[in-house]
Specification:
By secondary structure, the chain is mostly beta strands. Helix content is 14%, strand content 35%. It starts with 12 loop residues before the first strand and ends in a 6-residue tail after the last helix.
């Protein structure tokens, strides 16, 4: 049986002077600025959830509100989260090699706002928040969250003013049923 021809999804080919086909490359524009107004309008329309990323490192627990979170693989199950480079959380995640992502309930707007503040202003953000250690990594789990995933840190990658953190889901739990909190429902604004 002959081998199947490779499938090229969404690839554009061109021929120059009857030579071999080559992939077209989109040139990077370095001089023309991005249309800031359009960029903000479009990015602010993206639907964003609100999550709390938690970590335990050297006996200190910490958490922050994140909106850039997504599942990135089925097998093994993985998630990715963008963490601001200047965040107190990022070096703690790297040291601990583990973290948790907690899904906030629609009624937890105030908690999202508290954990969204800078660690310089609120250094111990989880103080007064009901947490328990995750069963596998010990990362703090919010007991009032809808649910959570506990992750083993797999990799980090620079991404401008943020770092992408990839984690393998090693455990998960559902705390209660409810509706997830979204950025739109809070009235908070995404800078875009």
């Amino acid at each position: 049986m002959p081998a199947a021809a490779p499938i090229l999804a969404h690839a554009a080919l061109s021929r120059r002077d009857d030579g071999p086909a080559s992939f077209l490359r989109t040139p990077h524009r370095t001089k023309a600025p991005v249309n800031e107004s359009a960029k903000k309008k479009v990015l602010r329309q993206f639907p964003y959830g609100l999550y709390v990323v938690t970590v335990m490192s050297e006996g200190e627990d910490h958490g922050l509100t994140a909106i850039w979170v997504m599942q990135s693989a089925f097998a093994p199950p993985m998630v990715a989260v963008a963490i601001q480079n200047e965040s107190k959380t990022l070096p703690m995640m790297r040291d601990a090699r583990a973290f948790a992502i907690n899904l906030l309930d629609a009624g937890q707007r105030e908690l999202a706002a508290k954990l969204g503040r800078s660690s310089r202003n609120v250094p111990y953000k989880l103080r007064g928040v009901a947490v328990r250690p995750g069963p596998v990594t010990g990362a703090p789990i919010l007991t009032d969250a809808l649910g959570w995933v506990e992750c083993r840190l797999v990799a980090t990658m620079p991404s401008g003013d943020h770092t992408l953190v990839l984690g393998e889901v090693v455990e998960a739990g559902v705390e209660h049923e409810g509706k997830a909190l979204t950025l739109a429902e809070t009235g908070m604004k995404y800078a875009g």
